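2024-03-11 09:14:02 DEBUG pipeline.ingest accepted 1 chain
2024-03-11 09:14:02 DEBUG pipeline.ingest length=135
2024-03-11 09:14:03 DEBUG pipeline.predict start
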Amino acid sequence: MAVAAGEYHSLGLKQNGSIVIWGHPGAGSVPEPNTDFTAISVNRAHSLGLKSDGSIVAWGNNDIGQCNIPEPNTGFVAVAAGGYFSLAIVRRCDYELSGDLNADCIVDFYDFAKMASNWLIDCYAEPDNPQCVPK
């Protein structure tokens, strides 16, 4: 889905949300679990990965704190790795949205799917369920 090239190593973001790394071995390996990544950034000898839950994973050279993630490590929507620093954008909702179950500032398919998983009952599979009896 994406590639990022740094001074000493490169990253690739696969469609399954995992990251592959190649180049200088001093850049380290992707921390486990290597899943659910949505964005990547790399520079010099450190890397950043943005997870689908809005958290950031950083690895590699941390000699001046470029891999130190600010707390709380939530709500991020973009990452950028500089030569000796890292940047991230935090999404802030101006309004509280009714129905926004995953706190991404929009009411979308994911919210409806989460609601449906709590509401819907398969009456063909569970015909004796009291909620399936016609009223």
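2024-03-11 09:14:41 DEBUG pipeline.report The radius of gyration is 20 Å.
2024-03-11 09:14:41 DEBUG pipeline.predict end
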